[in-house]
Amino acid sequence: MGLFFLALFLMVVSATSADEAAFIGVNIGTSLSDMPDPTQVVALLKAQQIRHVRLYDTDRAMLLALANTGIHVIVTVPNDQLLAIGQSNATAANWVSRNILPHVPATNITAISVGSEVLTTLPNAAPILISAMNFIHSALVASNLDSRIKVSTPHSSSIILDSFPPSQAFFNRSWDPVMVPLLKFLQSTNSFFMLNVYPYYDYMQANGAIPLDYALFRPLLPTKEAVDLNTLLHYNNVFDAIVDAAYFAMSYLNFTNVPITVTESGWPSKGDSSERDATLENANTYNSNLIRHVLNNTGTPKHPGIAVSTYIYELYNEDLRSGPISEKNWGLFDANGVPVYILHLTGSGTVLANDTTNRTYCVAREGADKKMLQAALDWACGPGRVDCSPLLQGQTCYEPDNVFAHASYAFDAYYLRMAMGDGTCNFNGVATITTTDPSHGSCIFPGSTSSLPSPSLHRPTPRYLVAVPNLSALKISIYAL
Predict the structure, then answer these.
(1) Tell me, what's the pLDDT at 454?
(2) How crowded is residue 114: how many other Cβ atoms within 10 Å of its Cβ?
(3) Candidates 225, 264, 281, 399; catalytic one
(4) What are the DSSP calls for 155-175, one per residue?
(5) 425 and which of 94, 270, 362, 381 could share a cystine (Cβ 3.0–4.6 Å)?
(6) Boundaries of each X8 domain copy (predicted)?
(7) Are 411 and 391 contacting, i.e. CB atoms less than 8 angstroms apart?
């Protein structure tokens, strides 16, 4: 199977009705010590053709950066605001007025997530969850936005009890006073049931009862597939079994026409000593197979051909998250926009945003003014936040010791950091785009395919950001050009 540069893409296939399309989206968390600014985030989304995102708040700068991009956006009422909104229609209306109305229609907000996993993480707020959803919806109705912006709330799959066989699954009965009116609300507003599906956790908690291949979508012999003896449906992956368990649990409460959207799913690429299956290879395998599974419009055994739109968790590794090492390593990219691993997507039949056979680089323009090159280099290594330590004397890209070579390295690093977005290779006219890899000798440029990680069972060599005590060390006034 060939390897292609990481790309997420728009999926257009039939879903629950002829005018709907299933898709792959991505969650954007912000617990990074070096969080890219919103324009950089959007540049990465565009470069990777990611057309659906979920935010965990309503950050104004991010929503402004997403304006006029056409990217579909789910925004979130944070859990800590749920109580106030659920107790006051006026507070909900004010929330919509402050966080939604200033951004539509320029920013394509398509749904509001009211809280996140409220029943399992904030059970005391459960009684006001439906009120909060109704109040938010009423505010949208008052603004004539209810037809374009849906209201729902994500649930942990742990609210489903006895999840295998799926046909016997049911929601925790203690939540019936919440779940029944919630499903009525979703049904009456033509919204969808948001479900977070993490086969990684099911696998980890099963103490060997769930085979790793079953969790990772790897091909299974028919004799190894799990069979629901009540329906005779065969399950060859955990993801489908959980989604169908949710469908059966809803039907148990007499709701059979509420579609499911998976708002979170993924696999960590690194873990501590107790998380031996949180590896680059497993993360690559899971997300690659998940994307292919959704894109193939396979559906689930209960609903074949009805694709389940899914948001991958998550865009960036979040190094500030607490908990085990795995909590910091769910991302597809690092903070610089470099893929953590290369997805196996050959044969998916989709258009990839960044095929490595057609890579571009940003280098210094031939004949450019040396003083302007110097100024651009200083900016890239300073305000541009490029790691220019490889240009220091004795490092891999110090030679050739001239402004043209050093500026080319810094320009390309910035270009990659900005996800090769439009206008990010200019530097006042002294930079240009080329398809020729400018790497030379031991100096591998950041955008070179040689510098990208390849999927393997081995950990990548750690990368360190070297502090430069004095930016003047990178000045080129001593260069003999």
Answers:
(1) 38
(2) 29
(3) 264
(4) EEGGGEES-SSGGG-EE-GGG
(5) 362
(6) 360-445
(7) no
Q: For residues 49 and 353, what is the distance between their CA atoms, to the nearest angstrom?
A: 6
pLDDT at 472: 33
Q: Is 264 a catalytic residue?
A: yes
Indicate whether 447 pLDDT > 90.
no
The 3-state DSSP class for residue 76 equals strand
For the chain, what percent of residues have pLDDT higher than 70?
Answer: 84
Q: Which CATH superfamily is domain 24-328 in?
A: Glycosidases (3.20.20.80)
pLDDT at 360 over 90: no
pLDDT at 345: 63
Q: Which CATH number fits domain 359-474: 2.60.40, 1.20.58, 3.40.1000, 1.10.10?
A: 1.20.58
Q: How confident is the model at residue 425 (pLDDT cuts 50, 70, 90)?
A: confident
Higher pLDDT, residue 474 or 145: 145
Global pTM reads 0.73
- CB atoms under 10 Å from CB of 245, counted, come to 29
Task: State the distance between the two ends of the chain, measured CA to CA, in whole angstroms.
Answer: 47
Q: Are 49 and 10 in contact (CB under 8 A)?
A: yes
Q: What is the DSSP string of 242-287?
A: HHHHHHHHHHHTT-----EEEEEE---S---TT-TT--HHHHHHHH
Structural domain spans, the chain: 24-328, 359-474
pLDDT tens, position by position, 218-232: 877 777 889 989 999
Report pLDDT for 143.
96
pLDDT 10s digits, 115-135: 999 999 999 899 899 999 999
Rounded distance between C-alpha atoms, residue 4 and residue 13, angstroms: 23
Q: Which helix (DSSP H) or strand (DSSP E) does residue 82 occupy? A: helix 82-87
Residues found in the chain? 481
Residue 117 annotated as catalytic:
yes
How many whole angstroms separate alpha carbon 19 and alpha carbon 192?
15
3-state secondary structure of 228: strand
Catalytic residue among 20, 117, 275, 366: 117
β-strand partners of 26? 53, 312
Q: Are 416 and 446 in contact (CB under 8 A)?
A: yes
> For the CA atoms of the chain, what is the radius of gyration?
24
How far is CA 389 from each of CA 36, 273, 382, 384, 463, rounded to the nearest angstrom?
20, 32, 12, 14, 12
